[in-house]
Design brief:
The protein has about 130 residues and is mainly alpha-helical. It has 6 helices and 2 strands.
Length: about 130
């Protein structure tokens, strides 16, 4: 029985995790109608390959975007903090004392709804009203 359980776990991992580190296995074919690019990125001409390694697209594998990928355009946490400085010291998520150890993907998601990660711990009303693009 133990061998059967281990075999099932191994099969599950083989199907759902890819041995190619740094790649996602997608459930749907890779195209813009299935994985829409957010409008603010689309407006400046961002395409899938600007953020993702598309070399294994035929196998439905796409490279994971990382904080380094984000910062290749957005430059630095300091620059992001200056762009969102109008929110004020207490409400500027990019001037957080938690940086630079936080991953951009904690709040920002390119292909689904982003979330305000700050309010998981912080409760000030002004933070609760932040809209995360």
């Amino acid at each position: 029985m133990r061998k059967v359980i281990l075999a099932c776990i191994a099969l599950f991992l083989a199907i759902n995790l890819d041995a190619s580190e740094g790649f996602y296995r997608l459930e749907k074919p890779i195209n813009e109608s299935e994985y829409q690019i957010k409008s603010h990125h689309k407006q400046v001409g961002i395409k899938c390959e600007n953020c993702h390694d598309m070399s294994q697209k035929e196998a439905n594998l796409v490279g994971k975007a990382s904080t380094a990928t984000c910062l290749s355009c957005h430059k630095s946490y300091e620059q992001l903090a200056s762009l969102s400085a109008h929110l004020g010291y207490d409400d500027n998520p990019h001037a957080s004392p938690h940086y630079p150890d936080m991953d951009c993907k904690l709040c920002h998601a390119s292909h689904k709804k982003s979330q305000n990660y700050c309010v998981m711990c912080h409760s000030q009303e002004s933070l609760k009203n932040l809209i995360v693009p």
